[in-house]
Amino acid sequence: MKEQISYIIDEIARIGVDISEIQAEQFYDYYELLVEKNKVMNLTAITDFKDVVKKHFADSLCLCRIHDMTEVRKMIDVGTGAGFPGIPLKIVFPDMQLTLLDSLGKRVRFLSDTAEKLDLRNVECVHSRTEDLAGNTYYREQYDLVTARAVAAMNVLSEYCLPYARIGGTFAAFKSADIAEELAAAEKAVSLLGGRVKKTEVFSLDDMGRSIVLIEKVRKTPKSYPRKAGTPARSPIG
């Protein structure tokens, strides 16, 4: 285990993030919980230890390179799946309040158990469709940071995520490196939903070309958005 802990610390340091040995142990425990649960339900296709560290943990933490996480008090991870990027960011920044949102109950139970076993405080795991939860005033426009690492076009992701960001908050979308055409197609949606593209960072993580798009929330999202469940994917804005 000592070798694995050192590997986690070193790999995360490569992207400019320093973590303690205790945090590295949390990451290792997270890895073990992930691969064990993956035997009975589909959480990830990536299960090799080194690949999980690089392609899930380090990839999630690349957001720290372009966004000041020390200013994030409340974060929601939309369509979090197995907990990426939300749980890695919470391990490194334990003081923030984190909401993990997913539409599959089994995944939400896994996330809740994982947060408890990793001793992560102020983590709320919510089972809901994002279109449904965004109409709830307890969650709508309440977050400093909204993240999504889901496989969906930017105009669809914007409708899923921007309603959760407070004015002055940020929506961070994790995407592939080739983002220019997709971003151009989402321009109308981003503006309509109250956002403005602030920054796009393209980088390479070993053999992966990646980008993170930061969208600043500059106006309230119209009350008619997001549309009812399933509509954003079937009929994207634009």
Give a structural overview.
By secondary structure, the chain is α/β, with parallel strands linked by helices. The chain has one domain (68-234): Vaccinia Virus protein VP39 (Rossmann fold, 3-Layer(aba) Sandwich), CATH 3.40.50.150. It contains ten helices and seven strands. A seven-stranded mixed sheet has the order 3-2-1-4-5-7-6, sandwiched between helices. Strand 2, helix 5 and strand 3 (123-127) form a beta-alpha-beta unit. The model has no long low-confidence stretch (mean pLDDT 96).
List keywords for this structure.
238 residues; alpha/beta; Rossmann fold; 10 helices; 7 strands
Q: Secondary structure elements and their pairing?
A:
Blueprint lengths: L1 H12 L7 H17 L11 H13 L12 E5 L7 H7 L4 E6 L2 H13 L5 E5 L2 H4 L9 E6 L5 H8 L3 E12 L3 H6 L1 H6 L2 E11 L2 E10 L13 H4 L4
Parallel strand pairs: 1-2, 1-4, 2-3, 4-5
Antiparallel strand pairs: 5-7, 6-7
Helix pairs in contact: 1-2, 1-3
Mean pLDDT: 96
Taking pLDDT < 50 over at least 5 consecutive residues as the criterion, the unreliable ranges are: none
CATH superfamily placement? Vaccinia Virus protein VP39
Main sheet record: 7 strands, mixed
- Reading the helices and strands in chain order gives HHHEHEHEHEHEHHEEH
Q: Output the structural class.
A: alpha/beta
Output the CATH class name.
Answer: Alpha Beta
